[in-house]
Amino acid sequence: MPAYLNAIGTAVPAHDVHAPYLEIAPYFLTSETDRKSFAKMARRAGITHRYSTLEPADPSRWTDRYDAEGFYRPGAFPSTGARMKRYSREAPALVDGAISDLAEQAGPDWAEGLTHLDDEGRARMVDVSQKAVTDRRATATGHIVMDAATLARIVAGDVPKGSVVQVAELAGVLAGKKTSDLIPLCHQLPGANITVRLEPNEKLPGIVAHAEAIIAGQTGVEMEALTAVSVALLTVYDMVKAVDRGMRIGGIALLSKEGGASGSWLRDSGESGE
User: Fold this and answer.
1) Which domain holds residue 259?
2) Is 36 helix (H, G, I), strand (E, B) or coil?
3) Are residues 169 and 120 in the same domain?
4) Cα 83 from Cα 274, distance rounded (Å)
5) One-character DSSP codes across 183-226
6) pTM here?
7) Residue 53: alpha-carbon gap to chain centroid
């Protein structure tokens, strides 16, 4: 499915510091040659605005500080780590501002249909408390490609860490049960039944993983099936990486889902139905 960039939201810090920057920056350069090079670069750059979270100090204070807080001082340029830490205090507000800018561009109904966003564009869990309990099922698949010799060793049980298939299947089941701990907006689904099966495939060569998640609940189990497949394949890689670091994981996909208001879906048809 193609993805489209529909809009770009922007937000900048409150203070336009371009003019004082051009005057202050040369103080941090140690030679006249560097200062001349900077002046030439600034003229040719075409930049007219630079923004900062720090309010510039009055020029009368530049012998002591370059901003109102005294973060930048003559002869004491802060480290990258210090600057990033200072900026991180302001970043959340800028993120909110960029999201608000997107919402303003798109109009009042921009988040309609995006169930994990509220009216202001903030992430939220979907409220399923009023949904009916129905039987739900989802299946997913994926594979890991490896050297034929690596697959032969797995099948023969000749891997130092133990039974690759057995451990990976158990890891997939555990991951499926822990999906809500791994993916922030997923609901906890106590009682979900997770099944994972790994099958060697000489044509790849590699291993194909299948997962099934079943529950009588108020929300679907697609993410549980996909998480189970993903972690099962990652476990295969972890157990065999000393033998074959070139293994490739791919093809992770939902195959089917059943239950809920949207009914059933099959990857073959790509359509919903009852």
Assistant:
1) 134-273
2) helix
3) no
4) 56
5) STTPPP-TT-EEEEEEEEETTTTEEEEEEEEEEEESS--HHHHH
6) 0.58
7) 26
